């Protein structure tokens, strides 16, 4: 994404796969997106729909804020939208 990176994370013992979004605190401050991240977190925690990735938890350390979410295998959203014809490369 524009402000963060998403990684595939695997639980050490359970071997469950997760999507881990990491946003560096310097980007949060530079782009003034703190309120947007809080809103994103609050919305994702309230949503329970089979077509929307579930947020498992959020946490932070000194350098970054993290969103741990359900791993959904397949195309990323932009590629999926292009594949069904809602968006073109133009």
Order of helices and strands: EEHHEEH
Helical amount: 25-40%
Count of discrete alpha- or pi-helical segments spanning 4 or more residues: 3
The main sheet comes to: 4 strands, antiparallel
The overall strand count is 4
**Helix/strand/pairing class, anyone?**
alpha+beta
Provide the β-strand percentage band: 25-35%
First CA to last CA: what distance?
20 Å
Order of neighbouring strands in the sheet with most strands: 1-2-4-3
How would you sum up the global shape?
globular
- Tell me the radius of gyration: 15 Å
| Assembly state (oligomeric) | single chain
Mean pLDDT: 91
Low-confidence stretches: none
Give descriptors for this structure.
90 residues, 29% helix, 3 helices, alpha+beta, 4 strands, four-stranded antiparallel beta sheet
